[in-house]
Specification:
The chain is α/β, with parallel strands linked by helices. Helix content is 50%, strand content 15%. The protein has an eight-stranded mixed beta sheet, with helices on both faces. It binds uridine-5'-diphosphate and magnesium ion.
């Protein structure tokens, strides 16, 4: 445990969040102030809003908040890169400027009072503290079920992730330094951070409904996020394709054997047109699927080898 209270940075990725941001910042400021007044955290703790190239007045809201309270800092990305990149930009901006960073969504679906417990665990020596949802009543049935299925699928595919944990977590300065060494472009922070290791713990909280505005994660984004979550960490789908191919080849040999034996042993042979066409279609679809999975990986390699910057910062308010 350190002697001086730690400087905490609260990182909020924001995309078109003008409707909620002011309230969110107010609520989080209250949490920080109450902890600072008790001497749990430093009075130099701050909130960093990362505008992910919003099309609405999010950045103007951040500028106004910053003007009236210097505890509210901001960065804006040059264009919309997505939640994970906005979060990374915020974490990397906080790196070297805090003792621990806590990431939380702008809609405050994740209960901010868990921050107090996270900081307590950090002060007790934990370097990464994961916020885990106790229940998700506020989410739609579809979101709940699909999230659960996805976690299970990830586990089966050998991806190490924390069950029912989104991106609500505390990371120490050392964890942020280690995260900076992960240079990959296909970002799936929930998979990367457990790989960092270090001493970690979890904090349970209740997930609430979005305060205002709409979810920025429509089904299409959720799907591509899920595919990234598996293919960025596990080569198992490719291996599965190989084994399916192998199994089919064995089946093929057995059928060929059966046909050969039937030719010699019986004079009655099926016309076989339907089964032939069916198997052609079946194999065709399997081949296309396999190419798709392999393409997914080759696409990832293609993006990684270019080593393009993962985000570009347009403005920064940090004084
Ligand atoms: N977000 C972002 N860039 C995007 C989409 C979302 O920075 O392209 C932010 C958004 O402002 C919010 C967080 O990511 O703070 C989570 O988004 P949202 O609440 O819409 O997702 P959900 O909770 O519905 O999964
Ligand atoms: Mg949300």
């Amino acid at each position: 445990m350190q002697n001086t209270p730690p400087v905490i940075s609260i990182v909020i990725p924001c995309y078109n969040e003008e409707a909620v941001l002011a309230d969110t910042v107010k609520e989080l400021t209250a949490v920080l102030d109450s902890m600072a007044s008790k001497g749990i955290i430093s009075t130099g703790s701050y909130i960093l809003c990362c505008d992910d190239g919003s099309k609405d007045a999010t950045w103007q809201v951040i500028e106004t908040l910053h003007k009236s309270d210097k505890k509210v800092k901001g960065i804006s990305l040059a264009h919309n890169r997505g939640h994970q990149y906005a979060l990374l930009a915020g974490l990397m901006t906080s790196r070297g400027r805090c003792d621990a960073a806590i990431s939380i969504d702008a809609d405050l679906q994740d209960d901010p009072s868990a921050i107090i417990e996270m900081v307590k665990k950090f002060n007790d020596g934990k370097e990464i503290v994961y916020g885990v949802r106790r229940k998700r009543d506020s989410d739609t049935w579809f979101k709940r079920t699909s999230a659960r299925k996805f976690y299970n699928l990830q586990k089966k595919m050998g991806v190490d992730s924390i069950y029912d944990h989104a991106d609500y977590r505390l990371m120490s300065a050392r964890a942020l330094d280690l995260l900076a060494d992960y240079g990959e472009s296909n970002l799936f922070l929930r998979g990367i951070i457990p790989q960092i290791g270090l001493c970690s713990d979890v904090v349970y909280y209740d997930r609430r409904a979005r305060m205002a505005g709409e979810s920025k994660y429509p089904l299409s984004k959720m799907l591509s996020f899920s595919i990234d979550g598996i293919t960025s960490f596990s080569a198992r789908p490719m291996r599965m394709v190989f084994f399916i191919g192998l199994a089919l080849m064995v089946a093929d040999i057995l059928v060929a054997l059966y046909v050969t034996i039937s030719i010699f042993c019986s004079d009655h042979l099926e016309a076989g047109w339907a089964s032939l066409i069916l198997s052609v279609w079946f194999l065709g679809s399997l081949i296309l699927m396999s190419i798709g999975i392999i393409g997914e990986y080759i696409g990832k390699i293609f993006i990684e080898v270019k080593q393009r910057p993962r985000y570009a910062v347009r403005d920064i308010l940090f004084d």
